[in-house]
Amino acid sequence: VLYLEQLILKHRVHLSALKVKETSEGLYFFFAQKQEARKLVDFLQTVVPCRYKTSQELVSHDIHSNTFQYKHTFSVELVPVCKNEVVCLPLSLARSLGHMTQVVICTRVTTSLHLTDPQSLQVAELSSSVYSVL
């Protein structure tokens, strides 16, 4: 997480945020424009495995001019695994990665997870696209 915070600062992704709020569940970034929030989501997808959901809520509607104001929400879930942590994979996923055992070690986290089977030393890569459908 500290590494990700450093990347956000280094690439100046946080500058377009109106406000950043820290909670026990994570960080909340508030933006004036939907496109600015989308840029943060796109940035996160390029540096860590994650999945996201979007939603919109009607804030106001002007009947006379037929205009709508929406509040857009992007909820991003980062992969909850760090380097050198033990991971228990679902059986079907372990089989699809070349019949690895279900208990593996995460040796590296980039845009994908690099996993090593401690029994056979078999190495596999779990991409963001696979993680996002789990």
UniProtKB/TrEMBL annotation:
<keyword id="KW-0963">Cytoplasm</keyword>
<dbReference type="InterPro" id="IPR048899">
    <property type="entry name" value="NMD_SH3"/>
</dbReference>
<dbReference type="Pfam" id="PF21193">
    <property type="entry name" value="NMD_SH3"/>
</dbReference>
<dbReference type="GO" id="GO:0015031">
    <property type="term" value="P:protein transport"/>
</dbReference>
<comment type="function">
    <text>Acts as an adapter for the XPO1/CRM1-mediated export of the 60S ribosomal subunit.</text>
</comment>
<dbReference type="GO" id="GO:0005737">
    <property type="term" value="C:cytoplasm"/>
</dbReference>
<dbReference type="InterPro" id="IPR039768">
    <property type="entry name" value="Nmd3"/>
</dbReference>
<dbReference type="GO" id="GO:0005634">
    <property type="term" value="C:nucleus"/>
</dbReference>
<dbReference type="Pfam" id="PF04981">
    <property type="entry name" value="NMD3"/>
</dbReference>
<dbReference type="GO" id="GO:0000055">
    <property type="term" value="P:ribosomal large subunit export from nucleus"/>
</dbReference>
<feature type="domain" description="Nmd3 N-terminal">
    <location>
        <begin position="2"/>
        <end position="78"/>
    </location>
</feature>
<keyword id="KW-0653">Protein transport</keyword>
<dbReference type="InterPro" id="IPR007064">
    <property type="entry name" value="Nmd3_N"/>
</dbReference>
<keyword id="KW-0813">Transport</keyword>
<protein>
    <recommendedName>
        <fullName>60S ribosomal export protein NMD3</fullName>
    </recommendedName>
</protein>
<keyword id="KW-0539">Nucleus</keyword>
<dbReference type="GO" id="GO:0043023">
    <property type="term" value="F:ribosomal large subunit binding"/>
</dbReference>
<feature type="domain" description="60S ribosomal export protein NMD3 SH3">
    <location>
        <begin position="81"/>
        <end position="129"/>
    </location>
</feature>
<comment type="similarity">
    <text>Belongs to the NMD3 family.</text>
</comment>
